[in-house]
Amino acid sequence: MSEIKVDTVAEKTSANGVTVDGLNIKDSKLVTANSVVETNLTDNIVTLAKMASGTDGNIISYDASGNPVAIATGNDGQVLTSTGAGSPPAFEAIPGGGKVLQVLTATDQTARTTTSTSFVTASNTLSVDITPSATSSKIFVQASFQAGTDSGARGFWTIYKDSTHLGHNNGMFSVNASNDVAGSLTFLDSPSSTSELTYAVYIKSNGTACHMNADTVKGSIVVMEIGA
After folding, report:
1. Same domain, residue pair 88 and 113
2. Do 171 and 152 share a structural domain?
3. Of the candidates 28, 59, 92, which is a domain's last residue?
4. Label partner for 147 (CA 20 to 30 A): which of 76, 127, 186, 197?
5. Same domain, yes or no, for 84 and 194?
């Protein structure tokens, strides 16, 4: 084996550098393609300054092939979420599920009476108009009032959306006594609409008078839009 010992090996032509066994060195740097391999790197040696420049806000991840990719910067208020196995994460809007998006209320303390055997709005007492912001929203309706009937009568109170009866038998409040009692109704509706909707308390009797807000006790209705 031959051995050459020298203190300095200089390039003959300044533009080419020095090649040793196919490895090119120029200006104190390795310039041969693919000349740097993982085993020749010291752990924790690559600094931020040595990384390629990118876009402000991007995050480095990996694609389905295991190759590094830059995750595009999201918008203000978005969060980084998983998009499933084999797919880089992404910046997305925070889900609105369970959020109360709007609350509307109405009150009424005028005494209302009806002898109608079909549901009526009792002069439009306790009604609220609401326009949902999304078709996926749910509408929660809660009403409270004073209810009563004449002696021997039976009264019924329920919730309507526009002309649609929501309560039916399991959502109605009924009284079969002459004493006034506290009545309440709740219903969770899925209207699938962004048009204005009217939610109201309807009442009916068996032909004898039934009452709402007797003795001017104030009734109330609360309508809440809940994001899906």
Report:
1. no
2. yes
3. 92
4. 197
5. no
pLDDT tens, position by position, 91-105: 887 766 678 999 999
Q: What is the pLDDT of residues 122-155, one digit of tens each?
A: 555 789 999 999 898 999 999 998 888 887 788 8
* Residue 52 belongs to domain spanning: 18-92
Q: Is residue 13 part of a domain?
A: no
- Residue 69 and residue 166 share a domain: no
Look at 37 and 90; give whichever has higher pLDDT.
90
